[in-house]
Specification:
The protein is an alpha/beta fold. α1 runs parallel beside α8 and α7 (167-180) runs parallel beside α8. The longest helix is centred in the last third of the chain and has 16 residues, at 217-232. It has nine helices and six strands, in the order αβαβαααβαβαβαβα. The chain has a six-stranded parallel sheet with strand order 3-2-1-4-5-6, with helices on both faces.
């Protein structure tokens, strides 16, 4: 997985502004959702995929571990799957025109619902009670992309943990929009994957400095366990 290399001035700035390096470390398990972005064959498999990220396969154990811990603590797990359909051509034509015809064709073939590329990566531990979300933009939370914000609120979730691929595009876009829709938002460093360590760490640093929190899987699990122990006391 990517080594975490955040410049020390970033958490120092956060601490100066918020009074703590981790503004959302007081996790309430029942109000916390793990939102896993785009861990699909089309973003991992170099043969089938139109935009594969080799590191994404390596974060699968971390994603599965955090999903299991949150389920056990009483939180929710949401698997977000990107899709290409007719609305993408009509309502997000700008993005389509930024790619060559060949690149667009690969994306359509990879992301059409029911295609091999659209499926979640086979070694992900997806459980029957987990939720599935379809998104049509880089961000899952922006208007016109999905109904995830409404679904989270309907179930009482006010905190989201963001994981998936790629860190600096769909994951960061979703995390920023989630925060601006008033969700307490944490990007989970070792449950995100990018094309390079530099892109990964730059994305996490930019998000942490202004938009929310950044923690590792171990840090999140420790806080979930602490919350459960406090509830049981």
């Amino acid at each position: 997985m990517h080594p975490l290399a955040i410049p020390p001035e970033i958490p120092a700035r956060v601490a100066a502004r918020c009074g703590t390096e981790h503004p959302f470390e007081d996790l309430v398990p029942a109000r916390t959702a793990f939102v896993v972005i785009d861990m699909q064959v089309g973003f991992i498999d170099p043969v089938i995929g139109h935009a594969p990220c080799p590191m994404a396969e390596h974060i699968v154990p971390a994603v599965n571990r955090l999903a299991a811990a949150l389920r056990d603590a009483g939180g929710g797990v949401f698997w977000v799957q990107n899709v290409h359909d007719a609305s993408c051509d009509a309502e997000w034509s700008v993005m389509q025109r930024m790619a060559t015809p060949a690149a667009r064709a690969r994306r359509v073939a990879s992301m059409t619902e029911g295609s091999a590329g659209h499926a979640l990566w086979p070694t992900l531990d997806v459980r029957p009670k987990d939720r599935r979300v379809t998104k049509r933009r880089f961000s899952a939370f922006i208007q016109g992309s999905s109904d995830i914000a409404e679904r989270l609120r309907a179930e009482g979730f006010d905190t989201v943990l963001i994981g998936g691929t790629v860190t600096n595009v769909c994951c960061e876009s979703s995390a920023r929009d989630a925060m601006m829709l008033n969700f307490r938002t944490v990007m989970v460093a070792d449950a995100n994957a990018a094309l390079s360590d530099q892109e990964h760490n730059a994305s996490l640093a930019a998000f942490w400095q202004i938009f929310g929190d950044v923690m590792t899987v171990d840090q999140v699990i420790a806080r979930l366990q602490a919350a459960r122990a406090k509830e049981a006391a």
